[in-house]
Design goal:
Elements (H helix, E strand, L loop, with lengths): L3 E7 L6 H9 L7 E6 L6 H7 L3 E4 L5 H11 L4 E4 L4 E2 L4 H9 L4 E12 L2 E2 L1 H18 L1 H5 L12 E3 H7 L10 H9 L4 E12 L1 H6 L1 H16 L15
Parallel strand pairs: 1-2, 1-4, 2-3, 6-9
Antiparallel strand pairs: 4-8, 5-9, 6-7, 6-8
Length: about 240
């Protein structure tokens, strides 16, 4: 049986983590490994994860790309799913992951993000999140789009073969925003990238903090800057929300 690791990069996620841990505990079948990689949290993130029985590592440097690299290097699974700490996988996620990656033509896959909060699903932002997986490569990487590549993002709960990630050199640790979109371009060398038709529920906390219109403007602006070559400076345009 193909082993699956769920890898959760964290930094000060004590508020979001309990719901994520509960969803992971409900997985059927369970993941073979639940691996949390922290970036130096100063709150109760690590205490909550350890109490729940997750394997916990502290990355040598903060930054989601660096934390993902550290986690994949230590993961025991053949397939690694990178899950944000404010996202909830469906109960059958492990079965879905195994089935998707059984296709050798698929290099990278993800779930479909459904952005939601206490007020319910934010369908406008959910639709934009979905459609940009099409229009972003169509506009900025048309040759890849013609090959069937779709640009996936971190809140999609991306998953891939561990050996492929290591062979490609992993995440660019200079990139602190859209690091997983950058990774998606690398995986396109090996095969197709696609979303499976199953929701992953992801928090609307950024939209709640920024407002709907500002949030979607930030997503669009940062995505366009990334496509035009901006990397380290992207963090200046993407305020942190915890």
């Amino acid at each position: 049986m193909t082993r699956v690791t769920i890898l959760i990069p964290t930094y000060n996620e004590e508020a979001a983590l309990p719901a994520t841990i509960a969803a992971l505990a409900a997985l059927d079948p369970p993941a073979d490994e639940l691996l949390l990689v922290d970036g130096g949290s100063t709150d109760a993130t690590l205490a909550l994860a350890r109490a729940a029985g997750l394997t916990c590592l502290v990355a040598p440097r903060k930054g989601r790309g660096a934390q993902i690299n550290h986690g994949v290097a230590h993961a025991q699974g053949d397939i690694v799913c990178v899950l944000h700490a404010d996202s909830l996988l469906p109960r059958d996620a492990v079965t879905v992951i195994r089935a998707a990656m059984a296709d050798p033509r698929t290099a990278l896959a993800s779930f479909m993000p459904r952005i939601a909060g206490p007020g319910g699903t934010r369908w406008g932002s959910t639709f934009h999140n979905w459609i940009k997986t099409w229009y972003a490569p169509l506009i900025f990487r048309p040759l890849l789009f013609a090959r069937g590549v779709r640009l996936l993002f971190g809140d999609h709960a991306m998953f891939f073969r561990r050996r492929d990630f290591l062979a490609l050199g992993g995440c660019d640790e200079r990139v602190v925003v859209l690091e997983e979109a950058e990774l998606c371009i690398k995986f396109a060398r090996l095969g197709r990238t696609r979303m499976v038709r199953r929701w992953v529920w992801t928090s609307d906390r950024r939209i709640a903090a920024w407002g709907r219109w500002r949030a979607n403007w930030i997503y669009l602006k940062v995505g366009a800057m990334w496509a035009m070559g901006a990397r380290e400076e992207l963090a200046e345009h993407y305020p942190d929300v915890r």
